[in-house]
Amino acid sequence: MNIILLMIPMALLLGVGFVSAFLWATSKGQFDDLETPAHRILSEENERKKS
Amino acid sequence: MDPKSLQVCAYCGTSTQEARYCCNACEILDQQVRPLPVLSEQENTYGYLDKDEFRRLYLHPQQEDFNYLFFAEGLHCSSCVHLLEKLPQFYEGIANARVNFGQSTVAVQLAPEASLAQAAHVIAELGYKPTPLAAQDNLAERYKKENRAFLMRIAVAGFCAGNTMLFVIPVYAGLAGTWATVFNWISFALFLPILFFSAVPFYRGAWNSLKYKVINVDLPIAIAMLSGFALSTYNLIRDDGAIYYDSTASFMFFILSARYLLKRVQQNYLSPSRMKSFFQTEKYLRLNGEESQTIPWSSVKTGDVLKIHQNQTLPADCELISDQATLDMSLFNGESLPKVFSSGMILFAGTRSLDHNVLVRVERSFAQSKLGLLFAQLDQGALQKSQFIALTDKLAQKLIMVVFSIAILFFLIYMNVNTTEAFNRSLALIVLACPCALAFGSPLTFGLALKKAQKNGVLLKDATTLERILKVKNIFFDKTGTLTEGSLSLSHSEPPVISSRTQGIILSLEAASYHPIAFALRHAWPSAQRPDKVESIQEILGHGVRGRIDGKNYEIRHLSESTHEDETAIEVLEDGKSLCRLYFLDALREDSPSAVTRLQKQGYHCHLLSGDKKSRVHQAALACGISRDNAHGELFPEDKKEILALYKDTCMIGDGANDSLSLQAADVGIAVKGSVDLSLNSADVYFTRGGLAPLFDLFNLAHQTRQVLIRNLSISLIYNSIGGILALTGFINPMMAAILMPISSIIIILSSLWGLR
């Protein structure tokens, strides 16, 4: 039963990790425009110039 | 099968009716992507953009990556996205470009020394009409922040709700003792982020509700959530009784998600530019003695002498200096026919010049002009418009009253029996009887309804419009542009048949003209052969055109309106002899009479309001079957508003700026023409399709939405009463709540999806 002492914090940490990843992605604007990337991916050349 | 439809675009492979490529973007992408020649400031139509005043106006300083934003009219397919994102290859001053397809904008990163004018020119060359957007007009920027915050709240609520359930299941399954307490405390900890982060918008809504003494849905939600938290924590501390963290948390997650959906759908077509940007993109030529200078709209001052070119809109109320000028008044008063003004008369802001190089002196700034005052009135009107209480809010008010009275009454009665239990059960009632369908079924239903409307070419500013439109009894139509086409067309001529040669001569003479008659002629005779050469063509301000073809003198004269009440006529002269006369009408749309008849059969009272001449209005009313008493002509925008005020439950259908006051005054304002932004500023609904057919779609959808809403409300009321009774009799336990709540939510989701499929 003692394993649960390790499991619970790990499970929560994992969850927190994913939520923080999501929050970070949101703050970087990953979810601002959900429409254009769907068109962009159809482009033949995949390299995009990084500014 | 039509063999033509089998043809595919050589670049993107979409089937196309047209020759090799489906659109301009594909053609350019397939052929060659190369830098376009850089134009000098004089050659470039957008040359004015390089002036310091303009560059400052359009600069977006707070953004690091992109410093200018263009609205690109005509962006419609994947190839357009690729083409515009390749802007750096067309002009090296652009370091990077990024398209937002939903908003039809392209953000560009421009090197400091590069030319903004050239960037605009390149976009125009690629086939899109660029409109630079100023930073303060950019609503999208504000939405972006709001949306991000909202999405974060949803993510946190989802995480907490999901994990709480994991810890609650063992407890439901019979876990007891220390571990049960530990798990419950973990649930408590997981509820805190929801309480302090995710639920913040509800506190704000509830606070506003108390402040303005209007009960909205946020208030019961906030109360239910806080009571759920208080009750659970109270029971957790005394280690006895029900704990509702899981159901309350998942509930918040559902509500937030449904609201987000509604928000995104609504934002989609509220594009970034606003009313004023319609002037801001204009530039004007100011004359200082011999010199001339290009200035932006915002710099136009009283006393300036401006040279207005053809098709330009006047920036302010001006006095005419030139001898004569023809002006299109359609934006201003909805009249389809242009008017001729002579020297010394006042021309109003918002009217459009149909002549070249008209000299005017600015008399009143835009803010004091007739149109400016109209806009100011509109801004005030937005605040004064009577508050419509939506069905859901009305029910929320009643429900909250009932639930609270029962809870308090129960507490007072049961207090003497067992105070703890009384407190417990009263709070449980408030948590369980929280208007679930109101809180989350309605935004979901509205979101789906708006999406459906959008597909049918009906843009709704606000979902409550769907409820308001059901109450409408009086429908007011504007004539020009609503019941009629809004542009002139050739109705008949003397002689009845015009030879192809004459047609060509007339078209050549009118070739450069923006006059509505010229458009009507081009439309009527698309295939006429034009003679090669026109010599000494000369436009006579306010009268017509004169020119020499094959050694003969031709003249097109506008006959004065008074000779023919209902029509506009021109006469064509060859060497001074009359060759023919042409008559023009603003014809009714084909479907107008049948649509009006159908509406009248359904029991609506139809009215006609117009700024046009009375005789024309009565004629149109007769053709549509609207009684003479209900047809009003020669009205100013303010008059239309006054007539509307005489009736109750009104719906106004009109076009754009000249009807904006009455569109706003009506209970439901529907705009059928003009720019979306401009119209949605004053109207509630905008039709992207012409004609009156979308009106019936709108009525159908409103009925459908109402049905779904009522069904959802009934489901939730039944659920609430059962939950309430169980809570009061003490039969409810947290597990039952945890099962009942998601089930009712799922039933409501399915009911909404099915009802608006």
Give a written overview of the molecule.
- The complex is a heterodimer of chains A (51) and B (757).
- Chain A has 51 residues and is mostly helical.
- Helix content of chain A is 57%, strand content 0%.
- Chain A is built from two helices and no strands.
- The longest helix of chain A is centred in the N-terminal third of the chain and has 24 residues, at 4-27.
- By secondary structure, chain B is of the alpha+beta class.
- A seven-stranded mixed beta sheet of chain B has the order 14-26-25-24-15-22-23, sandwiched between helices. In chain B, strands 6-5-7-13-8-11 form a six-stranded antiparallel beta sheet, with no helix packed on it.
- In chain B, strand 18 and strand 19 (552-559) form a beta hairpin.
- Chain B is elongated and about 110 Å long.
- Residues 270-278 and 382-387 of chain B have low confidence and may be disordered.
- Classes of the chains: A mainly alpha (51), B alpha+beta (757).
